[in-house]
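Rotation project, supervised by the postdoc (A.L.). Task for the rotation student: set up a whole-complex structure prediction and record inputs and outputs verbatim in this book. Inputs entered:
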Amino acid sequence: MKDDKNPLGNIYISHRAISTIAYQSALESYGVVGLAAKNFTEGLTQAIVKDPAMGIKIDFNGNAIKIEMFIIVEYGTHVKSVAASVANSVRYQIEKAIGLPVSEINVHVRGLRISNPD
Amino acid sequence: MSNDLAQPVTQLDGQGLKKLIEAGLTWLKTNQQIVNALNVFPVPDGDTGTNMLLTMQAAYDEIATSGEKNIGKMSQAIARGALIGARGNSGVILSQLWRGFARECDNLPLLDSDLLVKALAEARNTSYKGVVRPVEGTILTVGKDIAAAAAANQVADLKAMLELIIDAADKSVAHTPELLPILKQAGVVDSGGKGLFFILEGMLRYLNGESLDTALMTVQPLAAMQMDETMETVEPGQDYEVVVDFRPKEELILDQFYNSLMEMGTSIQVGEGDGIYRMHIHVPTDNRYLPIDYIMEIGTITKVYIENLIDQMEQIEEVKNRQLKLAPVEPGEIAVVTVSPGPGLSRIFASLGVAAIVEGGQTMNPSTKEILAAFENLPTDKVIILPNNKNIVMAAEAASTMTVKQVAVIRSTTVPQGLSAMLRLNPDMDFDTIVEEMNEALTDVETGEITIATRSVTINGVNVAKGQVIALHNGKLIQSTSSLEEACLGLLQECETEDRERITLYYGDNIVKTEVNQIVDRIRSAYPAHEIELHEGGQPHYQFIIAVE
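Outputs recorded:
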């Protein structure tokens, strides 16, 4: 949770709200085919999870947001470019929607999905 | 593939494809800036034209020296190169299109129109598999539309196929704003789709023997016209900028239009949006009405702008000269970032050698992000922040934890403290010593602030009525009176001015100069032995900020 003072009171934005934005934006980002569970106790890492809270970890660094994302990438794409693109668009969407800076965003590629073996 | 234009081409081998790839690459390079200008998604990897170009360049590099005749093997090599070189979203999608194309061509020796239709379909399928929620109105859509067009209108002649594919790509690109609202808002078409169009168009231009290294005179979307940039480069003979919005009577023949305009002036740009054309040109003084007269003949003029560029340039120069000259920072040097509540104070800070200024102060505290942004891009990793307000110290300290740079926050709570700290900046000393010196400097100065109470209150045993003048000494309320003059004198007494040498007054934007002079005269007669300085501070709310040293 994070509070941000305004003249009338406080604004609280939950981690879940932030991870939902990150999730939506990741799914629209080319090459990302799903989120992976962020640790072994939450499931096999290769399995695609549907709950944003499972594949995305949000922390606060002072007033800024720190994000860890665990993704599954389509086999045959340039993994580094895909990861860079998703980091950029997630950062952009979150900063646009929430107005707090994203200080750090780490993308962990947890696996590849093979639709077409070449 | 031969360059014989009349002959239908029904088969293409690996070497033919290589030539086409080279042509597509060259034409994309020629039009790279047009694609870049279309980008609406403001992210660092957002230069779509450049990204696609790098991707295609890598694809071509992979095959540049190849003598492979087999179309399957050649397209596999192209796909491999594109994959390795893929940059940005559009580049990754482009590499997936090639991957699908190559998979369908497999090990086959030659490409005919049957295979082309199948390969384009597979390219589309592969590209759509790479994303969970495809965003329509992008290069994905254009890939889908050309696959559909190829399947629907298949003919044996590959050049005719290419023509109809390009036609479909063109229509699909033009339709993208209908599918993606952000494009429509910006008044542009999708940049990735346009990039794909240029690659295909380059292939056809090569087959038609047309040049690939000079950009066409084209009509661009209005939003992509970059007029600000053209203004920077005013040369002799470009005395006036004329911009005319008009609706042509008949369809505009671009070549003719450009040729006529080129006789009148330079820097010609033409944009179009919703049937309205915008013409932009720089002309010498004598020709300033010619473009208007000419366009009057071919259409209905809706708006005309004429600007005297020479005069405008002079004004720009003047503004530039008036701008703050911040200290340039070299890597490894110490950069000081300061928060300043007014333009006059900013100038004084700048003259003392600060490297960046964040505007802000009482009731307008800058955010952590703004402070961070002020120094994050400076080319050094040693930063000192002077917040100059107790409400900003926190934000400054938060900013200092969010960077990898070495940052020290000097807890200056008033502007005079910040200025006093700034005087200790010595570039030859090491970071820790300067920080120590600056911290010491905070106690050298007594700060007084004079303002008007915005509400009635009792603090520190002082009763204040709304509208009274109040004096603060080092941030603490000490006095409320009915006149500014009284408040200043009372404050100076409190600051033990007798034992000090110098009084500096910074007057705010809410007091007139004659009043300032009266008050300063009174202070001069009260402290005849002191050195008294007066500066325009320009700060809001505070009639005076006073430093006593």
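Student's summary: The first helix of chain B runs from residue 14 to 30.
Supervisor addendum: The longest strand of chain B covers residues 299-308.
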